[in-house]
Amino acid sequence: MKNKKITQDKVVYFVNYILLTLLMIIVLYPLIYVVSCSFSSGEALMAGRVKFLPVEPTLLSYKTVFNYGDIWIGYLNSIIYTLIGTVISIVLTLLAAYPLSRSDFRGGNVLMKLFLFTMMFNGGLVPTYLLVRNLGLIDTIWAVVLPTAVNAYNIIVARTFFRQTISKDLQEAAELDGCSDFMFFVKIVIPLSMSIIAVLCLWVVIALWNGYFYPLIYINSQEKYPLQLILRRILLMSQVDFGNSAVDPKVVMENQYLSQMLRYGTIIISSLPLLLIYPFVQKHFVKGVMIGSVKG
Fold it and tell me: What pLDDT digit, counting tens, does each position of 149-208 carry?
């Protein structure tokens, strides 16, 4: 009987390894394909000859992108938006989540329902735009970071973490030592919550770095464009009006090749920072997902 159970376990493990390997291939292949395309020639891309490895390797797409001076302005703006937006969002999220996790906080249930209400209903684009405009935030960094600074889902996850991790006995022991609520939050709760803070930072950073819609709506000055809008402009500038017969056919073909190369080069350039950050917070990310799966 014991040998039969061991055999069944081996079969289950073998099937799991096969399925996980297939899943890994499915996830990795698009990434490898995009990287290979970014290093391939435009002619190979147009002919569809890139399947896995680069064909006719070249750095022309990256040279073209980085020779475009505004790309560095876009990187700087995106870094500024992401850093400031992340700090504001994390501070507001933690300050909202911790009191809501306390059983002795009066009105906590009502406030929690109000936060949940915002997950299902919002004012819409036009009222939001009018509010941002009336506040004088148009064409400023605050129009990008403030409308999304507080996320109800993040508050729920942080609140659940505090309830599961910060015991009432720990709070009472701190109070007996003369520790105020604010000092308890700063000196005890925050150090014990670094894992959930890392997860929340990852979520907010991804949202702000990849943010495209709000900058497109609220930012008018090109010198304030984040990276995503700069890359969009690069792609639009690389297009050619093929209906214009006055254009040299050779020039049309070269621009068409370059357009294909830029598509993949810009994807890698915009995704690289997040790919470098993720491995450092991956272990916390798993824990954060498990916490978020149970909302109390």
Answer: 888 889 988 998 888 888 888 887 888 878 888 888 888 888 888 888 888 988 899 889
The model's pTM is 0.78
What 3-state class would DSSP assign to 226?
Answer: coil
Check the CA dihedral 9-10-16-20 and report its sign: positive
Give the Cα separation of 208 and 144 in Å (integer): 8
**Residue 59: both structure tokens together:** 């750095």
Pick from 82, 72, 115: which is nearest to 97 by CA? 115
Which phi and psi angles does 21 have, rounded to 5°? Answer: -65, -45
Residue 291 sits at the vertex; the CA angle it makes with 285 and 294, to the nearest 5 degrees, is 145
Q: Select from 269, 271, 230, 274 the least CA-distant residue to 62.
A: 269
Q: Show the tokens assigned to 172.
A: 């009472």
15 Cβ partners below 8 Å, 6+ apart? Answer: none
Q: Tokens standing for 258?
A: 């370059």
Residue with token string 């370059």: 258
Residue 56 zone, left/alpha/beta (φ > 0; ψ -120 to 50; rest): left
